[in-house]
């Protein structure tokens, strides 16, 4: 299925100040590319001299436009005697000052554009982790740029639901990209003779839990059976990927659940991967839940 990209004509930016040009590009759906400075004593400092591509050239949304901007030498701030050229037609002091002017010009652009660093739609990608720290959010490097920006935007809204079942589902959906079922005031059935008494099948041996402060998170992952992977290496990689995802989800649950509650994270294993259990028999079938059951 082919996707048609939105094409935008490059706006005319010549004779605009650099800050005005950047604003017009943003409003047009384009971005500011490389900025090159050219000494021009006739034009106002900071005015756009040329642009590439030229006005009207069709660009895809988000593409960059490079600009050449006028600037004047720092020599203008020194007495006239320092403006004189040597016998070769050059000016050593002017050339020396250009080193510092080149360094400071980038800083001047950042200062002029500082407001864009606090706009989540325009902030540089490497600045997003710092913005995320404002709302106590740690960005995952595997997330796309669009997802990072969107999550920072909605973080404070999600925090309104922190500590609730609804909030936990939101967090797992947005951050873990998984859909789960949450059963509040619930815990796996304990050992009850005649009702739940087959250890490894329908019961667990564990301490008694106050269900008023506990809940179950059930996740049914849509995984293909591991045996469908042809090579041992592929199976190993897939198992490692699954384990990392499980750890990530568990850490999200622990971070977002109320501190006084306990959570049982239940993962539904595909039927094809569930081990066949036999009645317990020492030296043959003796690992409960893996190859045997009691009951």
Helices and strands, with pairings:
Blueprint: E1 7-9, H1 18-28, E2 31-39, E3 48-52, E4 58-60, E5 64-71, H2 92-112, H3 128-134, H4 145-159, H5 165-174, E6 180-184, E7 214-219, H6 232-256, E8 262-267, E9 278-279, E10 292-293
Parallel strand pairs: 2-5, 7-8, 9-10
Antiparallel strand pairs: 1-4, 3-5, 6-7
Describe this structure as you would to a colleague:
This protein has 295 residues and is an alpha/beta fold. It folds into two domains: 7-118, Trypsin Inhibitor V, Chain A, CATH 3.30.10.20; 161-293, no CATH class. 30% of the residues lie in helices and 17% in strands. The chain is built from six helices and ten strands, in the order βαββββααααββαβββ. It has helices at residues 18-28, 92-112, 128-134, 145-159, 165-174, 232-256, and strands spanning 7-9, 31-39, 48-52, 58-60, 64-71, 180-184, 214-219, 262-267, 278-279, 292-293. The strands form four sheets. It has a three-stranded mixed sheet. A three-stranded mixed sheet has the order 6-7-8, covered by helices on one side. Strands 1-4 form a two-stranded antiparallel ribbon. The protein is elongated and about 100 Å long. The model has no long low-confidence stretch (mean pLDDT 84).
